[in-house]
Design brief:
This protein is mainly beta. The chain has one helix spanning about 1-15; strands at about 35-40, 50-55, 70, 75, 85-90, 105-120, 125-140, 145-150, 165. The protein has one domain. The protein is elongated, with a radius of gyration of 24 Å.
Length: about 170
């Protein structure tokens, strides 16, 4: 009986000692780039963009982190994790005509950056942070975006404004 108790105790200790922490990721994910829309005449005041639509260049659907055709003062959008550049169509006063064609004012922005992989944990794996952020506006005869400024050149979280767009 003592031998059985000893063997069971030994197996119990080995079993408990070999347990591993659950693989639950609580450390986060790749951060989104946060854009604030500001009044051109008062550069410290946020200003709504009416009926804003955001579409990745070359894509047919809208960005799923932004409410489609809503009035917005700030948005958070994902950058590509497998490329050093991402382009978006920002559409002010977005609407469709009778044929389903977009009638809003479309401006194209291109964001370039360096990607830095950061290993969080075995559960989370790698996330991508972004450094050396640069943004450009494709000029046309009717830009609703009047100016762009990078407020923070490194994106390590989505808590603050990275880019300011003035309109």
């Amino acid at each position: 009986m003592k031998k059985i108790f000893g063997i069971l105790l030994f197996l119990f200790i080995i079993g408990v000692g070999s347990c591993e922490k659950d693989d639950i990721c609580v450390e986060g994910d790749t951060p989104l780039m946060t854009i604030g829309f500001y009044n051109l005449s008062d550069t410290t005041t946020l200003k709504n963009v009416t009926s804003l639509r955001v579409v990745g260049e070359g894509k047919s659907s809208t960005v799923n982190t932004v409410t489609d055709r809503a009035n917005a003062q700030t948005i958070s959008i994902p950058l590509k994790t497998d490329a050093n550049q991402t382009s978006f169509l920002l559409i002010s006063n977005s609407a469709d005509d009778d044929n389903g064609t977009e009638t809003g004012n479309i401006d194209t922005i291109t964001i370039s950056y360096s990607r830095v992989e950061d290993f969080k944990s075995r559960a989370c794996g790698f996330i991508v942070n972004y450094e050396n952020l640069n943004i450009q506006l494709k000029g046309d005869s009717n830009n609703w975006i009047q100016d762009l400024r990078v407020a923070q050149s490194n994106i390590i979280n989505s808590d603050s404004t990275h880019v300011k767009i003035f309109h």
